[in-house]
Amino acid sequence: MIVGIIVLVVIVLLALVFVGMYNGLIKLRNLVQEAWAQIDVELKRRHDLIGNLVETVKGYAAHEKGTLEEITRARAGAMTPGQGPAEAARSEAALTQALVRLNAVAEAYPDLKANQNFLALQTELGSTEDRIASARRYYNANVRELNTKVETIPTSFIAGMAGVHKAEYFEAEGIERQAPQVSFGTDSPARGAGPVPPPASAAPPTPQDSPVAAPANTQPPQA
User: Contact at 8 Å (CB) between 43 and 78?
Assistant: First the structure.
């Protein structure tokens, strides 16, 4: 009788542990999916803002056809439906590179930089980039926790039975790890636009402008 009770208690405890680990895995999977959905919302907003930026730039720099077509292609690639986090990261990296070149083009048009609609778009895009970075950190933290449980014992056995698998990180590589600086002011260059050339050295002073040093008095003072 006692042995039967002990066996029953052990079975109940194992069942509770199994249910707890199973529910924990499902919860983590749902958190990862929700975090990715939030990133997806912000990426769509980013794509819309960049599209509006391109249209605004066209009004001032229509002859910059190559750059405008490049960012249009990169935007279309980033908007391709059904991309996983890793593929989306590569597409967004390409779009970021094209956006940096668009920023460099905009630097050459003072009227464009002073356009109120353009300024509002750049502000909104900067805020969106910040939200994407924050959402990406949250998403990757949940992915790391889920993947750790999927790969470690004993939850790895339960993950297989529950159909829970490792998730992909949303990580850009290299320079694309940071959002481009969406600033078109004259005080600082756009990030990624290349080094700023040093100012031209001042012309040497003309003989009329150059002060002529008075000859030193080599005679001793008169008594």
Answer: yes
Instruction: Write the single-letter amino acid at 14.
Output: L
Which residues, given as ranges, of the chain have pLDDT below 70? 172-223
Q: Looking at residue 214, what DSSP letter applies?
A: P
- Tell me the DSSP string of 144-166: HHHHHHHHSTTHHHHHHHHT---
Q: What is the domain count for the chain? A: 1
CATH at residue 52: 1.20.1440.20
Q: For residues 168 and 198, is the Cβ–Cβ distance under 8 A?
A: no
- For tokens 């599209």, name the residue: 51
Question: How many whole angstroms separate alpha carbon 54 and alpha carbon 62?
Answer: 10
Task: Kindly state the helix (H) or strand (E) to which residue 16 belongs, with its residue range.
Answer: helix 2-58
Q: What is the pTM of this model?
A: 0.72
Residue in the block written with tokens 């080599």:
218
Q: Using alpha carbons only, how large is the chain's radius of gyration in Å?
A: 31
What pLDDT score was predicted for residue 206? 41
Give the distance, in angstroms, between the CA of residue 85 and the centroid of all CA atoms in the same chain.
13
Q: For residue 110, what are the domain limits?
A: 29-177
